[in-house]
Write a structure and sequence with these properties.
It is a single chain. The protein is α/β, with parallel strands linked by helices. It has 2 domains: about 300 residues, Adenylosuccinate Synthetase, subunit A, domain 1 (Adenylosuccinate Synthetase, Chain A, domain 1, 3-Layer(aba) Sandwich), CATH 3.40.440; about 90 residues, Adenylosuccinate Synthetase, subunit A, domain 2 (Orthogonal Bundle), CATH 1.10.300.10. Helices cover about 30% and strands about 20% of the residues. Strands 1, 2, 5, 6, 7, 8, 9, 10, 14, 17 and 18 form an 11-stranded mixed sheet that branches. It has a 3-stranded mixed sheet with strand order 13-15-16. Helix 3 packs across helix 4 and helix 5 packs across helix 6. It is globular and about 65 Å long. It binds inosinic acid. The site of inosinic acid has 20 residues, from helix 4.
């Protein structure tokens, strides 16, 4: 019933991509699909992502390993487009190990991915503090993402293929510049020690993931691409400059993994039934006051990495249409529909006039949809809302989330 790569689709890989500003709840659909895939791959970004994973009955936030990593049959790939903070990765590996899961033998880390050092995090924080003073803070996660991608683009980054080398010379070369320009001190010894320790654990996982993925495809294995962040945070197509520093679209994922475009079959675009954003930047349909507060509390809208309260508002169709266009979504997963159960009036932004959102209002259903697992059992008003989104985007809504639990999903 759950579908892996649509047999009618051209390619054999499936991508799950966020269509809003992240935190759409991609983890749940990944979890449902993962059982049917042989490889789960992350392409871009770093420890700015955050998904809650339940390990041995306890909730943990994972940042680097994809949320599908608990599926013990699956090979896990961290792709070339990523920036990897090794202490965070080691922490996640350890956590799994404590729960009896040894992920290392099935973990493949691209030798082309970049190492994100502690000094990148310091730099991110310093940049953010400086911007905040001038009222132009981006509200980054302070995980060093921007500075690590800066180094990569400036061609002074250090890639994972060098994990077993002594990097003291390269890091010392950076030390003076950073000290002079930012007053930031790189602790070269500590960084080197950390890389050395990490190498003992993960050096055997560092490999040519492009060749690995290609070999997987040749042997007809199925690959699930787990998008990180989301389309409106994309460095090119997002709400620049209030974006992250990587390419978060399906094209970015292909680039980040070194997969050819024709490998893509299914692109599942994930959108909340409303909308949230962490960090600064335009949010035309943001709702303040009681309604915004209610959405935040009902939806548990607090950042999983930074714990910041997420800004909440209504779904904005033009953004969803644009994301579907950029990613070529073959279907949508609308998540957290049940969060809207208590809304008398549900608004959907359909356009913009003089800098303000233009809305279409829908009558709410005012009853619980929590856990509803068949479309026919959804209240009529909820069906009207779903069908409007479907009609306006031209993309079929195949999955509808109605709660946190595994079964709490309508599949159409
Ligand atoms: P950075 O990726 O840490 O540089 O942050 C840039 C912007 O992207 C900030 O507004 C962050 O809040 C946002 N962001 C980065 N990663 C995520 C994510 O996984 N979910 C939601 N927002 C994110």
């Amino acid at each position: 019933m759950l579908m892996k790569a649509n047999s009618a689709a051209v390619g054999d890989c499936t991508a799950v991509i966020g269509t809003q500003w992240g935190d759409e709840g991609k983890g749940k659909i990944i979890d449902m699909l993962a059982a049917e895939y042989d490889v789960i791959a992350r392409a871009c970004g770093g420890a700015n992502a955050g998904h809650t994973i339940v390990v041995a009955g306890k909730k943990h936030v994972f940042r680097l390993l994809p949320s599908g990593c608990l599926h013990e049959h699956a090979q896990i790939v961290l792709g070339s487009g990523m920036v990897i903070h090794l202490p965070t990765l080691i922490e996640e590996i350890d956590l799994l190990r404590q729960a009896g899961i040894d992920i290392v033998p099935r973990l493949k880390i691209s030798h082309e991915a970049h190492i994100l050092f502690d000094f990148h995090k310091l730099l991110d924080g310093a940049n953010e503090d400086h911007r905040a003073k001038t009222g132009k803070g981006i509200g980054t996660t302070r995980r060093g993402i921007g500075p690590a991608y800066c180094d990569k683009a400036a061609r002074i980054g250090i890639r994972m293929e060098r994990i077993s080398e002594n990097l003291a010379e390269d890091l010392s070369a950076r030390k003076d510049t950073l000290q002079r320009a930012y007053g930031i001190t790189i602790d070269v010894d500590a960084e080197c020690r950390c890389i050395e320790e990490s190498a003992k654990i993960v050096a055997s996982s560092v490999t040519d993931t492009v060749a690995f993925l290609s070999a997987m495809r040749s042997s007809r294995k199925h690959i699930l691409i787990e998008g990180a962040q989301a389309t409106l945070l994309d460095i090119d197509h997002g709400t620049y400059p209030y974006v992250t520093s990587s390419s978060t679209t399906v094209a970015g994922a292909l680039q980040g993994l070194g997969l050819p475009p024709q490998c893509i079959g299914e692109v599942i675009g994930v959108a909340k039934a409303y909308c949230t954003r962490v960090g600064a930047g335009d949010f035309l349909t943001e709702v303040q006051g009681e309604t915004g507060e209610r959405l935040r509390e009902r939806g548990g809208e607090y950042g999983s990495v930074t714990k910041r309260p997420r800004r909440c508002g209504w779904l904005f169709l033009p953004d969803l249409q644009r994301s579907a266009m950029i990613n070529g979504c073959t279907c949508l997963n609308i998540t957290k529909l049940d969060v809207l159960d208590t809304e008398e009036v549900i608004r959907i932004g359909v356009g913009e006039s003089q800098g303000k959102a233009v809305y279409k209002d829908f009558a709410g259903w005012m009853c619980s949809t929590a856990g509803v697992a068949s479309y026919e059992r959804l209240p009529k008003n909820a069906q009207v809302l779903i069908e409007c989104i479907e009609m306006e985007t031209g993309v079929p809504i195949r999955y509808i989330g109605t709660g946190q639990g595994r079964g709490e999903m309508i599949i159409r």
